[in-house]
Design brief:
The complex is a heterodimer. Chain A is mainly α. Chain A has a domain of 199 residues. Chain A has 23 helices and two strands. Chain A has a two-stranded antiparallel ribbon with strand order 1-2. Chain B is an all-alpha fold. In chain B, a hairpin with a 4-residue loop joins strand 1 and strand 2. The mean pLDDT of chain B is 91. The chains are: A mainly alpha, B mainly alpha. Chains A and B meet through helix 5, helix 6 and helix 7 of A and helix 17, helix 18 and helix 20 of B.
């Protein structure tokens, strides 16, 4: 399995799903147990990636390459760099947690549920490891179907509307993105005489600025819908609110990152001229800033606990895209770290909401209050989740937001200033949320006898809390794996970026020599 | 000069086999196997006929490949066997086989099991052979009418059913009307060139200049006739009614084989005699394709009958295939071939699931009839999901490859507006395909009766399901085959 480690990581959930399909549907507990084993196996298989990853090497690691459809020049080519490493690990961790958290929540059609979940895991990992654009697109679309079912079958009252809205939005974006991909593919044929979807080959293209911009917008629609960026975000509250808890966790923690990952992996390196185009950067930054403020303001107004968390995602993802289009190492590295942070903290917040919902079957803030008195462990866990999301120092959120703001400040001070207000609003809605649910006296008699976290529920939080504190206290390992890939992207987009400081450093020395 | 050479015979073998076995089935029906229980022998003869025709095709295919020649002509240019013709003929045979084996049980349920049904399938297939192989106006027209006449009968095969009768009548009247247009266009072509051979017609039409009104007349009338056959908007009116009323296996046959044959015909005419007037027909066809996509997709949104929904969806697929012809380059024509191939299996599969839902006293083609299928029969539901995903063009199913080629062809030929419109409509299509999915997986079932099952149904579902996934996951051999069909592009 040595040479094919990444393939094992990719297909372990799928193998798990295949075995799961053989278990009779009546044996629900066996199915649950097996799904958990498969998810855990998926995580354990991915662990060696962390230990064997060489943070000093440039380019992709664990690369596997084989012909898939030679007639089209399509290859099965996978590999990871630091950015994908973090996202793959996030996916496998969150996958385990989401599957563990569904043990009691899902009682109906258990087999189909876990089958869809495992299939989805393979799809998401595939997106993050593909180095062939065709392969990437296949995984990108494969993810949609299981998520449609997870929302549409096991979701809340408006599940069907939410599921199809999610599906159509992403699919429409995907179809336009496909046109962009095909344009690059064909241009490559025109310039080099052979067809390929390989990312590294497509990077050699020399496109006219106009064409780059068109392709950029095609990609933009695909990725921006997925992130989601401001005018395309309307599917997100519906999907998040209606999805079952585990669905929301995976949706927020991992699925949204497919969009930001797309920007970092494809838009910037493949279309460097368009990516630094002032007009395009301004539009994207403006949309990010609007997303930050708008998401925060809408969160402030929510009466529904889950909707609040959903809209907070719009705000937090705004930071991620802002970081990307600051187009400097701090912004990009901060963006990736913030993507992981958002996965950790929003995942926890959705779990927190889910636990309250499982006990009370409501998410209305008016129904809660003073939960800290009856569920002390729960309140502590919720506090950590809330504070990590709000960006308290020594927890993960702070590191990501701080680095992004550094990057934004370097690019344009006004951007940083506007984004900071988003953090303030963020603290406001999160603290208010906590106050309305956990603090104060118990006003609703139904809340008097709620059981505290079970061991299983606590187990879903512990890995995330540990990771949150790790990033908060000692983020260096994370930044270390990002350093090389981020530098490469910045180098690619702004070839002069790293030269300037060198020239400045040389100038005084020359002056010394002259003296 | 001999009238019937060995080469002529070699080319004609598949058609002879189809016609011979077709007529044999008619005769055996009342001479040798008159009892209703013996109809399975007729089905056996049909399969045998297809096998013999397939053997003939196989010989032609290996002859072409071993000699490395692009085509074999027969009857002094009346018939041409090239990779294009062979590719489509394989599709016809596969479709005929699958439709025939699922019909047995269906016709029993309908109480309309008559032997001539199998003969008609073979004769229709024979007509399709001439549509794909013919390179002469008369041959093509005779092939078309042979196919269409068989279909008029088969669409109205449920004699006791009002919908079926209505469908047959509408199809017959409109079909005859459109054939009139077509043959008028052919007569103008003949008048202009003095020949019925496509090659000679092409040469003389090309010399007459782009804006010759007579050429335009030939183009317009021929196009009307052809677009009717592929059910392109605004000549699609017959399709939803005919599809809904016809026996479901025949709906499948009509939407797949008849459409494939008509597209083979259409591509031959547009890239043959009409190739020189491309500047005129390209904008016209673009408008038709856009209208077809629009009407097909938007009308499908509100359908409550699954059969009718699939009828509109098949109209929108015709729009997609037309886009490949509009692009008209090598990728575009490969796209037409690939699309037709994947469409055959995925669309047949979707209709076969509906065939399985037809049970005693349950018509089975309403949205309510398919609801809760996941609880009743998970295998059917999952297969239907695969077919619908493929129809919607979601990878890694076969349907994605069809869309992929069409998009690529449009991008290559810089038809960006058409490409964006087509991309947007793929998202629209998801809505109605997933209404069926929603019904199957989320809604509760309305009846307790198990779905129909027979060896033929299981085999057909197996073949279509496997092919839909196989072409999606390992498309290499199929794409190589399709890429060989592009000798038509000049």
């Amino acid at each position: 399995m040595d040479g094919h480690l990444l393939s094992w990581v990719l297909f372990t959930p799928l193998i798990g799903m295949a075995v799961l399909l053989l278990i009779p549907a009546e044996r629900k507990n066996l199915i649950r147990l097996w799904a958990n084993i498969a998810a855990l196996a998926g995580f354990l298989v991915s662990l060696p990636l962390v230990f064997r990853f060489d943070k000093d090497a440039s380019g992709f690691q664990f690369v596997e390459k084989a012909d898939w459809i030679p007639a089209l020049g399509v290859k099965y080519m996978i590999g990871i760099d630091g950015i994908s490493l973090l996202l793959v690990m996030l996916t496998t961790v969150i996958g385990c947690i989401a599957i563990l958290s569904s043990w009691n929540a899902i009682q109906d059609r258990v087999k189909e549920y876990y089958a869809m979940f495992l299939l989805q895991q393979t799809g998401i990992i595939g997106v993050f490891v593909s180095l062939d654009f065709f392969l990437f697109f296949v995984f990108w679309e494969v993810v949609l179907v299981p998520m449609y079912f997870i929302i549409g079958v096991w979701g809340g009252p408006r599940k069907l509307y939410a599921a199809i809205k999610f599906f159509i939005y992403t699919l429409a974006g995907g179809a336009l993105m496909l046109l962009g991909i095909l344009t690059l593919y064909f241009e490559h044929f025109k310039q080099f005489g052979y067809y390929t979807f390989e990312i590294s080959e497509l990077m050699k293209l020399n496109l006219s600025p106009v064409m780059e911009q068109w392709v950029f917008w095609a990609f933009f629609i695909g990725f921006a819908i997925k992130v989601p960026m401001f005018p395309f975000h309307t599917w997100l509250p519906d999907a998040h609110v209606e999805a079952p808890t585990a669905g929301s966790v995976v949706l927020a923690s991992v699925l949204l990152k497919m969009g930001t990952y797309g920007f970092i992996r494809f838009s910037l390196p493949l279309l460097p001229k368009a990516s630094v185009n002032a007009a395009i950067v301004q539009v994207l930054v403006a949309l990010s800033l609007i997303g930050i403020i708008y998401g925060a303001l809408v969160s402030l107004m929510q009466q529904d606990w889950k909707k609040l968390v959903a809209y907070s995602s719009v705000s937090h993802l705004g930071f991620c895209t802002l970081g990307i289009f600051a187009l400097n190492p701090n912004g990009l590295a901060g963006s990736v770290i913030q993507q992981i942070n958002h996965g950790i903290s929003t995942g926890m917040l959705f779990l927190v909401v889910g636990i309250a919902y499982e006990r009370r079957h409501t998410r209305d803030f008016k129904e809660f209050g003073g939960l800290g008195h009856v569920m002390p462990v729960y309140a502590i866990v919720a506090a950590i989740a809330m504070l990590s999301s709000a960006g308290l120092p020594l927890l993960n959120g702070f590191i990501g937001e701080f680095t992004i703001l550094q990057g934004a400040f370097e690019a344009n001070r006004a951007w940083a200033a506007i984004a900071v207000t988003g953090i303030i609003f963020g603290a406001a809605y999160l603290l208010w949320m906590y106050q309305r649910t956990m603090l104060g006296q118990i006003t609703n008699p139904k809340n008097l006898r709620l059981p505290d976290l079970s061991f299983r529920e606590l187990a879903t939080f512990l890995p995330l809390i540990a990771w949150a504190i790790w990033i908060g206290v000692y983020p260096q390992p994370h930044f270390a794996v990002l350093e090389k890939p981020v530098a490469q992207i910045v180098e690619r987009v702004r070839p002069d970026y790293f030269q300037k400081p060198v020239q400045q450093a040389e100038a005084p020395r020359a002056a010394e020599v002259a003296r | 000069m001999s009238y019937y050479t060995a080469q002529d015979h070699f080319v004609l073998v598949p058609a002879i086999m189809l016609a011979l076995f077709g007529c044999a089935v008619f005769l055996f029906d009342f001479l040798i196997f008159p009892s209703p229980k013996q109809r399975k022998y007729l089905l056996f003869f049909l399969v045998l006929g297809l096998v013999f025709a397939g053997a003939g095709l196989w010989q032609q295919q290996s002859f072409l490949m071993s000699h490395g020649i692009p085509e074999i002509t027969a009857f002094r240019g009346t018939l041409t066997v090239d990779s294009f013709a062979l590719f489509f003929n394989w599709i016809f045979l596969a479709a005929s086989f699958i439709v025939a084996i699922v019909s047995y049980r269906y016709l029993e349920t309908e109480n309309e099991h008559h032997g001539e049904y199998y003969g008609l399938i073979l004769l229709a297939n024979c007509g399709m052979f001439f549509l794909a192989t013919g390179t002469d106006l008369i041959t093509l027209f005779v092939g078309l009418e042979l196919m269409a006449l068989c279909f008029y009968i088969m669409v109205g095969f449920l004699r006791g059913d009002k919908r079926s009768n209505e469908a047959a009548l509408k199809y017959l009247l409109l079909g005859a009307f459109s054939s009139g247009f077509l043959v008028y266009g052919f007569s103008v072509m003949y008048g202009l060139s003095g020949s019925t051979r496509l090659r000679e017609v092409a040469i003389s039409l090309a010399t007459r200049g782009l804006w010759d009104p007579l050429v335009f007349l030939a183009l317009a009338t021929t196009a009307v006739g052809l677009l009717f056959k592929v059910s392109a908007v605004p000549f699609h009116m017959w399709a939803p009614d005919a599809y809904e009323g016809a026996p479901t296996p025949i709906t499948a046959y009509l939407s797949v084989a008849s459409k494939a044959a008509s597209f083979a015909f259409l591509v031959r005419i547009f890239l043959g005699p009409l190739a020189a007037s491309r500047e005129i027909w390209e904008p016209l066809l673009s408008a038709v394709a856009l209208a077809t996509l629009t009407v097909g997709n938007l009308a499908a949104l509100s359908q409550t009958n699954v059969k009718r929904l699939l009828a509109y969806s098949s109209i929108s697929h015709a729009g997609f295939i037309l886009l490949g012809l509009i692009a008209g380059n090598v990728t575009g024509i490969t796209g037409v071939a690939v699309y037709m191939l994947v469409y055959t299996f995925m669309n047949l599969g979707a209709f076969i699931v509906l065939v399985a839902l037809r049970r005693k006293n349950i018509i089975g083609d309403d949205m309510d009839d398919i609801s809760g299928l996941m609880r009743k029969s998970p295998a059917h539901a999952v297969l239907m999901l695969i077919f619908l995903c493929s129809l919607a063009g979601i990878p890694p199913t076969a349907g994605f490859l069809g869309k992929y080629y069409i998009f690529l062809a449009l991008v290559e030929t810089q038809h960006y507006v058409l490409a964006v419109a087509a991309a947007v409509y793929t998202a629209v299509a998801v809505y109605y395909y997933f209404r069926i999915v929603r019904s199957m997986f989320v809604s509760e079932t309305t009846d307790k009766l198990p779905v129909a099952s027979s060896f033929g149904l299981r085999l057909a579902l197996g073949v279509t399901g496997v092919m839909t996934l196989l072409i999606g996951i390992y498309p290499e051999p199929f794409l190589r085959l399709a890429q060989s069909t592009t000798s038509l592009v000049r």
